[in-house]
Design goal:
The chain has 11 helices and no strands. With about 325 residues, the protein is mainly alpha-helical. Helix 1 packs antiparallel against helix 11, helix 2 packs antiparallel against helix 3 and helix 6 runs parallel beside helix 8.
Length: about 325
């Protein structure tokens, strides 16, 4: 089992971006959280938003809600919740500016994406339907509730949007997109951590999400290897997850799948791609391989009981926010 870790480590040390190298060091080698924050700050613009291909499928250097969402995911991953830190304050500044926002949703795509290499799903077209999806709006609203000053105009905005997001979920009935569903999960987690009043019943949202997650995870294990389908690791990051018990068989099966499918270079297949910018995609694919390595090794460590002991103990400072029972 240690060979899985060692092969992954070699790839990270040889090929990872500084940000992913810092994340690897933080999670598995006792590296400082400040290294992750310093590397992440290089992607932040003066308006507080994030760009510069932080989300590797979009090379737009300008700020966008999706790339800013990607920054919040890294902060969540390392358990960083200092609302006064410049990274967090900048994100709040961007979200409160009204940029890339229609009053109820932050845009899923922005027009400036089209001027730089990007995957087709980040291309901004004339159809504005993607602007009215709760990816990433639900997550960003939750981030505001966790970090903005209660009673402020921005906090009130986040409060209202979070309520609208829950209403949309209830009226829609089923969320078919795994990315949107993850944004709702983050909304729940942020609301549970926030000091201010909740804009909805966290218990009601929790029950809804447990049901939705079980529907979203693909039970076809053969498709996990070569298709872009939803796997348990999209939502489950530990055995303490509120989604683990009802999906235990599939969650445990993914551990075996990860072990069986590691490639000789220590990476795992990237089950998507984009053809319009082949040179850029070749680079982005390497970046994604590092991100997948970190996700898979974390999954084996925190979900896979049979994988216990195949890697160093977790960094004592690397405990992440868990989805616990309420």
């Amino acid at each position: 089992m240690s060979e899985i870790f060692d092969l992954s480590r070699q790839f990270i040390y040889r090929s990872a971006r500084p940000l992913d190298f810092a994340r690897w060091r933080f999670h598995f080698e006792g590296g400082p959280k400040t290294d992750v924050l310093e590397a992440l700050a290089q992607y932040q613009n003066e308006d507080g938003g994030f760009g510069h291909a932080l989300e590797p499928d979009c090379w737009n250097p300008f700020s966008s809600p999706i790339q800013t969402w990607a920054a919040t995911e890294i902060l969540h991953e390392i358990g960083f919740h200092d609302s006064a830190h410049p990274l967090v304050a900048g994100i709040l500044k961007y979200l409160g500016s009204g940029k890339d926002f229609d009053g109820h949703h932050w845009y899923n795509t922005v027009e400036s994406n089209n001027n730089f290499p990007h995957a087709p799903w980040w291309h901004a077209g004339s159809d504005s339907a993607s602007h009215h999806d709760y990816n990433p709006t639900a997550c960003l609203a939750g981030f505001i509730l966790l970090h903005a000053e209660p009673g402020s105009a921005l906090y009130t905005l986040g409060f209202d949007i979070a309520g609208e997001a829950l209403s949309a979920l209830i009226s829609q009935g089923t969320i078919h997109d795994m990315h949107t569903l993850l944004c709702y999960i983050r909304l729940l987690q942020y609301v549970q951590q926030a000091a201010g009043p909740a804009p909805f019943s966290a218990l009601a949202l929790k029950r809804k999400l447990v049901e939705q997650v079980s529907r979203c995870i693909s039970p076809d294990k053969t498709a996990w290897s070569d298709s872009y389908v939803c796997m348990p690791s999209q939502f489950i990051d530990s055995r303490d997850s509120i989604f683990y018990a009802s999906n235990q068989e599939l969650a445990d099966a993914q551990c075996g799948h990860i072990i069986r499918t590691q490639l000789e270079d220590g990476t795992w297949p990237v089950n998507w791609g984009w053809a319009d910018y082949p040179d850029a995609w070749a680079v982005s694919k390497i970046w994604w391989k590092s991100a997948i390595i970190i996700k898979n090794i974390l999954y084996l460590r925190d979900v896979g009981s049979s994988a216990a002991g195949f890697m160093p103990e977790a960094n004592p400072g690397a405990s992440r926010t868990r989805e616990r029972q309420v």
